[in-house]
Amino acid sequence: MPAAPVGWAGRPTVMCSAHQHDDLELNLVAEGGTMLYLFGGVPVEVGPGSVAAFWAAVPHQLIANSATRAHWVHLPFENFLSWGLPDSLVSRLMSGMPLIAPPSAAIATDPANFAQWAEDLDSDQPELHRIAMLEVEARVRRLALATVGEPVRQYSGDDPALRQVIAMVRHIAEHFREPLTVADVAAAARLHPNYAMTQFRRVVHTTVLDYLTQRRLAEARRLLITTDLPVERVSAESGFGSVSRFYTAFSSAGGVPPATFRRDHRLRRV
Cα 86 vs. chain centroid, distance in angstroms? Predict the structure, then answer.
């Protein structure tokens, strides 16, 4: 997880596994084709000229790519929370739904702006750093306005393996709060469980059950930050079968227990 805001550009590469980091991530496809992401189990295409923003603590993975150049900006989550954005927008991002600008909302100066932000954020001049942060905040606010009511762009390719895995991760995204087995997830793609596990690991590079746990943990983080639910309720609402299992999984993944995570992020939000 970056300790400070950072930006860079380059050729996107397919990720070998889903990963998480507790910050706000912005992507811009500057040249070439599309990037196909899984955001918390939701398959999304980010096309040429599109800007995407998402909470990177939700498991995400680039599983297919034809873009030749993209820009990235990472902002510590406390910076994002300090902007005072509407609760509905914060909740949407923390639920794993990215903001993606439709083609009609593309801004011609985005490539130059992203490049300037990366340079300014790397500068040792505090004023340049402050200017970049203000401009990034303004871009996210414009992005939020442009995406109100816009459906998330779904995968439109014809790769059978991707379609099968997308059916499985979509089922996980829709049912992770419920008791789920590998057989349940495989059935969503009309596959035998053994074959389903092989296909899932080949594309996502992790097991169905590990991915399911990541998705449940992301929901738990969202609830800890945005609600006052007791930890026991957070555990149940996130799909964990027992509180002890939840504590073990949460502490192992994040290094701190749920109550500490909530306290630290609540303090940042003030």
Answer: 19
Nearest to 239 by CA among 217, 256, 208: 217
The reply to whether 141 and 15 lie within a common domain is yes
Q: Give the Cα separation of 7 and 97 in Å (integer).
A: 22
Q: Which range, 21-25, 65-69, 172-176, 203-207, has the best average confidence (pLDDT)?
A: 65-69
Spacing of C-alpha 211 from chain mean position: 13
- Do 30 and 100 fall within a single domain? yes
Query: Final residue of a domain: which of 86, 114, 146?
Result: 146
Dihedral of the alpha carbons of 47, 69, 1, 99, in degrees to the nearest 10: -20
Q: What is the predicted pLDDT for the residue at 269? A: 43
Amino acid at 89: L
Mean pLDDT rounded to a whole number for the chain: 85
